[in-house]
Amino acid sequence: MGHINPDFEAETVVITGATSGIGREIALRFGDAGANVVIGDIEKEPKDADVPTHEAIEDDGGTATFVETDVTDSDQIHRLVSEAREYGGVDVMINNAGLFIGGSVRDLEPDDFDQIHSVNAKGVYFGIQAAANDMIERGEPGSIINTASISSSYAQFEQVQYDSTKGAVRMITRGSALELAEHGIRVNAVGPGQIATEFIEGWSEEAKEAAQEGDLIKDVPLGRAGTPVDVAGAYLFLASAEAGYITGELLFVDGGWQVF
Q: Nearest Cα to 198, choosing from 52, 98, 68?
């Protein structure tokens, strides 16, 4: 099959949760495509690599910077987006930071409920707000992409708290797309399926090992767990001019998980 070679030269991409996993791969891909990459994460050191993401991009000849950011704090998100002004302002905002907490609806503690919603839903909401305000203030169109999940539409066992946050991401995406369209700002989401990353630390060790070895929690038509490489291209597509007439959509990247 052929390959699309996106060009984001001179554009600035802000990505939350890009130290490890899917976010790291997204950042590396945008760096390869010529973008200035601004990474916001609570940690600089990756869980799945030896070199921090921004340093890896710079080592390959790209431009990147790291800003310590807790997405549960809206002031820190706005500060992250303001850092993009060093490169002319944000053109693409990717709200990818996420948290998984599993467990029965009968047992979850209030603090855990608040934490997962603060990261997964509040972080996305205020990421959109910060990026949209920056784009509108500069009079520039842009693209905002949120990380949703198969859980945005499908319930999974002992994941009510997680499913509810990703359901919120879907509707935050759709509502924001409706409101921001008049400003030339497109808002979409990507819904990964079973992806083998360190993000699944909330699973049992047995489940994590199975996923990383290519086994599945649920069988999918393509017959394997996904990887960050499988997912990252969807973000570049939605950010590109090729997706210029797409907004308010949730693009599932799940190996066919939802079809049966």
A: 98
C-beta neighbour count of 137 within 10 angstroms: 9
Amino acid identity, position 169: V
Give residue 3's Cα distance to chain centre: 22
Six-digit token string for 114:
């608040």
For the chain, what is the largest distance between any 2 Cα atoms, rounded to a whole number of angstroms? 51
Check if the beta carbon of residue 232 is closer than 8 Å to that of residue 25.
yes
Report d(CA 7, CA 95) in Å as an integer: 21
Poorest-pLDDT segment among 72-81, 122-131, 158-167: 158-167
Q: Are 194 and 22 in contact (CB under 8 A)?
A: no
The reported pLDDT for the residue numbered 4 is 79
Give the closest residue to 156 by CA, choosing from 104, 112, 116. 104
pLDDT in tens, 100-145: 999 999 999 999 999 999 999 999 999 999 999 999 999 999 999 9
In sign, the C-alpha dihedral spanning 73, 29, 248, 114 is negative
Q: Which amino acid is present at 178?
A: L
Active site residues: 162
pLDDT number for residue 159: 87
On the question of pLDDT at 207 being above 70, the answer is no
Structure token pair of residue 52: 């921090």
The answer to whether residues 126 and 45 touch, using CB atoms and an 8 Å cutoff, is: no
Name, in order, each residue with C-beta under 8 angstroms of 193's C-beta and a sequence gap of 6 or more.
150, 220, 226, 252, 253, 254, 255, 257, 258
Q: Using DSSP, how many helices (H) and how many strands (E) does the chain show?
A: 8, 7
